[in-house]
Hints:
The protein is of the alpha+beta class. The chain has three domains: 3-119, no CATH class; 144-186, SH3 type barrels (Roll); 194-282, Ferrodoxin-fold anticodon-binding domain (Alpha-Beta Plaits), CATH 3.30.70.380. The protein is 54% helix and 18% strand. Strand 1 (144-147) and strand 2 form a beta hairpin.
Amino acid sequence: MTLQRILKITALIVLIVLRWSQHEWIDSWAPNQHFVAIAIQFLLFAFAANVAVMVLSWLYRRRKGLKGRQADNVVIGLENIYYILLTIAAILTLFSLMGIAPQELLTSLSIAAAAIAIISKDFITDVISGIIISFSREISIDDYVKIGEHKGKVIDLTINKVALLNEDDDVIYIPNNKFYANEVVNYTKREIRKVNIEFEVNINSFTTIEELENDLIHTLADFKEHIAPNTFHLKIVDLRKDSLDLKFQYVVDRRDREIEREIRKKTVRQVLNYVKNNLAKTG
């Protein structure tokens, strides 16, 4: 057990003792006893909820065999629920310190609350979607996915955003409601890990599709231990008057972002070299 966990549990025990013996010592704080009592209740709730999440996460990690602070969707979901409850408790505590009872608050601010809900409906949708995503099996940390036009590795699932690390090492934050509004392709969870490299070439810049395909296959011979045999395929996506849209496909044994980036870089460069050489010959 780490020092941080020991301190949290110790603080919780101290707060429980203070709350239980409050009537014996709070008289010395007579002018501020209302504020002291409310502050103790808030801290007691915050630490109790935090310790509960900590224990549940520890039990879950132990059952799933997760190491250290390794997290998956369930652990992240528990943390997100804790942050939501803590925010609600902080708001109620603030109004209690102002002398406004929660019942009166809900009654007197019903219209204002409705207006706030309408204004912040996108944020609320993101939060609800974040909780659903956290406990779903559609997407997990370290999955390689495509959300709309964005493709990359999932590095974080926050309460209102999904964080992707793309091939250029840029971190892209996608609102959770956009996750449901767009088509999602999870390359990690599908059984066949097919990789697509799309490019456009001039019709006059190559001899035959078969020759270009064989040239690309030969170029990637150094990566044969990462690519399933006999899975290469150069596909015509669209035929135009002067050019072709092509898609070079292959199946990898496992998703490895660095290897895929190297394969993609070598493929694109070989296409450029092939086109350049053929144009030189025809010229």
